[in-house]
Amino acid sequence: MRQCDPSTYRTFQSPEFFEPDWRSFYVESYKRTVDFSTTTRSEMGIQYGEDAFHTLDIFAPEDASDAPVLIFFHGGGFKEGHPSHYGYLGEEFVKRGAVFISAGYRFEPEHGYPDYVDDGAQVLKWAVDNVGRYGGSPDRIFASGHSAGANIVALLGFRTDWNEKYSLPADVVKGLALASGGYDFSIVDPAYPDQDVRPVQASIVHRIDTIPTSVLVGYGYPEAQRVGQSPDFFRNQGQALVDALAGHDFAPEVVEIPDTDHLRTGIALGDSASPFFTAVSRMIFT
């Protein structure tokens, strides 16, 4: 089990360069997740694979039966984060009758593409094989992600090349809820003009094999994560995905999250007042 000690957690961002206070967020969100775990059926630190980063936390209603399952992959630039920072985002979904899973994955620089996609596939395999024990239905699995997590979810939801390896059907994920992700890495981040460019295979706009029944594309506007970053960077990324899906005669639901920054688009999933929460709830409970 990978340990989480947010009181000493170090982010890779420079506090002079990044506006959101991620360190304080990690400390507070971990406390909220622990509090949530004491009030509902939960199991934290489940090992779904061999690596120390292969952990997940699961939260479920006490009387769940054939319930929808929402799996969340956190952000962090493929370099940081922990499932236990985000478990509390599932509180409102669990109250409404869903099973919520907060999942971790391996990080750069030790692990890059496609390792984290394989990790996501392992999470889906674990869910199919095990959610029944928590009252969830393996036939009602939905996936959501923020930032780097949204990239992972998109690569899982729109591609089929990983399914055979884990003996999973192409439609194992019934719906996707994507928040402020990167989908086309040819769009350069203005705050990082010299950034390393990820392989073209990591840009899902260039490889869409299948499309789930429901797709939500969310982003904030304006939404700047870094000093010097364009306020429409994440909107441009979202629009690139919308345009790619239009080429397959599919129109996703677009959810613009107002008055936000990159941190708050990450927690909009758990905010019952957010239009993103409303759209996701409609998707998984309909």
What can you tell me about this protein's structure?
The protein has 286 residues and is of the alpha/beta class. It has one domain: Alpha/Beta hydrolase fold, catalytic domain (Rossmann fold). The protein has helices at 22-37, 91-95, 115-130, 148-157, 233-246, 262-267, 275-285; strands at 41-47, 55-60, 67-73, 99-103, 136-146, 173-179, 214-220, 253-257. An eight-stranded mixed β-sheet has the order 1-2-4-3-5-6-7-8, sandwiched between helices. Strand 7 (214-220), helix 5 (233-246) and strand 8 (253-257) form a beta-alpha-beta unit.
Estimated helix fraction: 25-40%
The CATH topology comes to Rossmann fold
End-to-end C-alpha gap: 35 Å
Query: Strand order across the biggest sheet?
Result: 1-2-4-3-5-6-7-8
Summing up helix and strand content along with how strands pair, one would put the structural category as: alpha/beta
Run of helices and strands: HEEEHEHEHEEHEHH
Overall pLDDT level: 90
Low-confidence stretches: 5-18
- Radius of gyration using CA atoms only: 17 Å
The tally of domains stands at 1
Q: Could you describe the largest sheet, including whether it forms a barrel? A: 8 strands, mixed
Q: CATH superfamily name?
A: Alpha/Beta hydrolase fold, catalytic domain
Number of strands: 8
Corresponding CATH architecture: 3-Layer(aba) Sandwich
CATH class: Alpha Beta
Number of helices: 7
Q: Quick one: overall form?
A: globular
Tell me the β content: 15-25%
Brief overview, please?
This protein is an alpha/beta fold and 286 residues long. It has one domain (6-285): Alpha/Beta hydrolase fold, catalytic domain (Rossmann fold), CATH 3.40.50.1820.
